Amino acid sequence: MIEPQILEHPKDLLLRKERIPHIWCPGCGLGSALSALVDALRSSGLDLKNVAVVSGIGCTGRAAGYLNLDSFHTTHGRAIPYATGLKLANPDLTVIVFSGDGDLAAIGGNHLIHAARRNVDIKVICVNNFNYGMTGGQGGPTTPRLARTTTTSYGNTEKPFNLVHLMAACGAPYVARWTSAHPHYMKIAMGEMLKKDGFSFLEVIAPCPTNFGRRNKLREIKLLQRYLEQAVLESQPDIAKADIELDSPILCGKFVDLERPSYLTALKETVSAKVKVYDFRGDGRAPLEEEPVKPAAAKAPRKPAEVPSERPVIQRPVQIKLAGLGGQGIGLCGLIIGRAAAIFDHNQAVYTQEYSPEARGGASASSIIIASRQIHTPYVTKPDIMVIMAQGAYNKYQKDVRPGSHLIIDKDLVRPKDLPDSVRIQAIPATRLAEELGQKVVANIVILGFFTALVPHISLAAMQKALKGSIPKGTEELNLRAFETGYNYGKKRRQYRDHGY
Amino acid sequence: MGKDVLTGTYFLTGNEACAAGALAAGCRFFAGYPITPSSEIAERMSIRLPQVGGVYIQMEDELASMAAILGASWAGAKSMTATSGPGISLMMENIGLGVMTETPCVVVNVMRGGPSTGLPTLVGQADVMQARWGSHGDYEIIALSPSSPQEAFDYTIRAFNLAETWRVPVILLMDEVVGHMRERVVIPEKKDIKVANRRGPSEPPGKFKAFKPKKDLIPEMPVAGQGYAIHVTGLTHDERGYPAVEWEAQEKLVSRLVKKIRLNSAKIASWEEIGVEGAEIILISYGVSTRICRAVREIAREKGINLGLLRLEVIWPFPEKRVRELAGRINAFVTVEINYGQIALEVERCVAGKCITRLVGHGGGTVHDPQKVLEAVEEIAS
Questions:
Q1: Which of A174, A180, A227, B141 has the fewest CB atoms within 10 Å of its CB?
Q2: What ipTM was assigned to the predicted interfaces of this complex?
């Protein structure tokens, strides 16, 4: 007598045997779909070490856990964004999403459409059984009209998604549909998806005899038989006719197969030349060219940061507020003052900006506090110095002008009124002077020069360094002239007037 | 081609400094969705990551952003997202998955005023309890709170190091003021930046169990593509990672998730004490509010009040033991935070009646008026 030999099933290699039996019901289509995937993977020639499967929640969601691959059972609906992270962190991975219709098309619907649009290279297998099986057979986004489920006892009144049409409309470069009664075609489609560089989508119509079948009078094998009979196989099916009704034909086949650069391919095409990096991956293993070592620079000893000899010492924090209309560059002025004080004068500086809902044109303000010691309170509450460049800004911020403070204004654009006598006003026709230099847009730099001449809290050297580092290349000459113009205007005035610092 | 650490002295916003810190810590994957007042972090990452061969992706929402950074982490990335207000509420779902699957990642919440849409451009500090327990189920988490742009840089690096070490999502609880204000930020040389990395598997595939903890309660972490055929699930699972939907497995897993933070809290908790020795009254605060407390402390000292400040660097886990010790020696703790009492409750719990506890809180939109804090202190001192 010959002893029966127990051989390993060829599919066992890809299954976590210790986790079988699975939880799926007799007559369910999930086994066939998973089996087709195993076959497709076995004949794909892929190194299975680099294949990852991601599922959401539900009966189909359990599939990931039965495959002997890196497998991820995530939250309801989020398999696709999770898979997106896996793929973009390690593009060597082949990432498969295996999940259900409720998971992918209802709670995960937003991710589904955006993934198709974005064309991240993930392979999505959506097993559609027309209802929520695991939670007891409730209706969902794919339930056919008039079908009965535990939440559509009177018959479903909503129009279901035509998923293949939806995916095609979103730009998915590969879209197919088969039923679980077509294992051979499923395998072929899955094999094609594994080779495709881009988002690919396969809908598998699968029976759920326990829930969907039972309530629609189609128990167990009858349901599968029905799908087999209803299926219409076409070589070039019309996607617009792929809607599924209870008794309608189920159009099957490959609806879309075209070439479109995947997310990472498009990223390389667009960005690589600009940043001189030719591979992008989140795991930090992208090869980078070595920074060319400049021999002279490499040998030069690092200069310790110099504290300028003329560094102003500021015991009590000085509060400065600058206001203008959006587009006048008042924010940049504040930034330069802050940089000058904090980086080049080695003082402390805090800069904040007031945000108004208008993107352009509204009155806006930026504030700087400068001191030689740590600054605690970040906001300017009692400005010692205000710079105002427009009447609109004056009207809005006049309330902040305090007795005894300094007010610096554009002479032609601001008419101060209703101010306490003790406010010391310094005026400069900044915009007019800028126009004389040929560019109205540098009025802010003219007033910055004026400010520098009058205000002792920031050294001239620091301001000049900060200015150079803060303006666009090619505009240096104009900006330096604007600064000088304002500075000289201020110096002259200082000769005539003691302004009390 | 750019460098990941741009050593130098800058005048940066907290948000910009946070992005610089992330790159210095080794972050190469960012998924996010624009929201005020955190968007500058995403903007900066979108420029910087491609320069260092990393990936920035703008997702369709915050649910997706959080899911994507978990996926990226399991592919070996140091990953991050940044958000605020309504966005952090959406992220809570997958923060739970990150906790359950012990996935290192960093979530930045630049706090604005709430509830709901609240104050998009203005400060709040009311997401402190949400950071701790905002996702369903019981767990412990790590959260840090910077009070300046320099700290935004430093603490972002710390956040990554803590996430990698303790295998938990780490929340950087910034606030709008710190996120938007500019100050001097010094970015050191790359060699001077301490970076921690997760512990990889010490055994080959086969025998190795992906969720079997070591002595410190932390399992070694293989990632996708290493040949371990790992299974990662949000279901309660055993040491192999397989679903185990039963109370015994729940007890074993969830108690470890809690204990790995609680029992190691001496290594994780971190705070600064300013003039605490000999103080009669101590302010407890975090984020931008600590700046106001520093100002108040100076005024109070001038008035002869012996006022100390305990500044929380790490908010969760809370320095429970230290607060308890101090409570036996001082007259009062005054919690200063931009909400109507969140950390204040934690202080009360730890103090357990051993000294006076007070809250100086408000609803958000601005920082505290130092005068209000001073009044609360003076009332106790008198």
A1: A227
A2: 0.97
| Same domain (yes/no): B18, B133 | yes
pLDDT tens digits for range A381-396: 999 999 999 999 999 9
Helix (H, G, I), strand (E, B) or coil at B140: coil
Q: Do B291 and A376 touch (CB under 8 A)?
A: yes
Rounded CA separation A220/A210 (Å): 7
Give A289's pLDDT tier (boundaries 50, 70, 90): confident
Partner-chain contact A352 B177, CB within 8 Å: yes
Q: Please indicate if any CB of chain B lies within 8 Å of the CB of A297.
A: no
On the question of pLDDT at A494 being above 90, the answer is no
Structural domain containing residue B186: 8-192
Q: List, for residues B171-225, the tens digit of each pLDDT value.
A: 999 999 999 999 999 999 999 999 999 999 999 998 899 999 999 999 999 999 9
Cβ–Cβ gap A75/B234 under 8 Å: yes
| Terminal-to-terminal C-alpha distance of chain A | 113
Chain A, residues 22-51, CB within 8 A of chain B, namely 49-50
Q: Which of A46, A84, A112, A278 to mutate to test the interface with B (most CBs of B within 10 A)?
A: A84
Q: A245 to chain B nearest CA, in Å?
A: 31
Contacts of A306 (CB under 8 A, 6+ apart): none
Question: Looking at beta carbons, which residues of chain B come within 8 Å of A84?
Answer: 31, 57, 59, 64, 67-68, 71
The domain boundary residue, chosen from B166, B192, B218: B192
Question: Of B66, B238, B40, B242, which Cα lies nearest the Cα of B152?
Answer: B40
Q: Check residue A222 and give its pLDDT.
A: 81
Closest to B348 (Cα-Cα) out of B374, B371, B318, B317: B318
B12 & B126 share domain? yes
Q: How many CB pairs under 8 A join A and B?
A: 245
The total number of structural domains that make up chain B:
2
DSSP lists the bridge partners of residue B17 as none
- Residue spans per domain, chain A: 12-264, 318-496
| Together in a domain, B187 and B277 | no
- Cβ distance of B226 and A49 shorter than 8 Å: yes
Strand partners, B30: B56, B80
Please report whether residue B323 resides in a domain: yes
CATH for B146: 3.40.50.970
- Contact between B26 and B160 (Cβ < 8 Å): yes
> Considering only residues 47 to 106 of chain B, which have any Cβ-Cβ distance to chain A shorter than 8 Å?
50-55, 57, 59-61, 63-65, 67-79, 93-94, 96-97
Residues forming beta bridges with residue A224, ordered by sequence position = none
Q: A318-496: which CATH architecture? A: 3-Layer(aba) Sandwich (3.40)
Which chain A residues have a beta carbon less than 8 Å from that of B370? 377
Superfamily of domain A12-264: Thiamin diphosphate (ThDP)-binding fold, Pyr/PP domains (3.40.50.970)
- Asked if residue B262 belongs to a domain, the reply is no
Statement to judge: residues B145 and B22 lie in one domain = yes
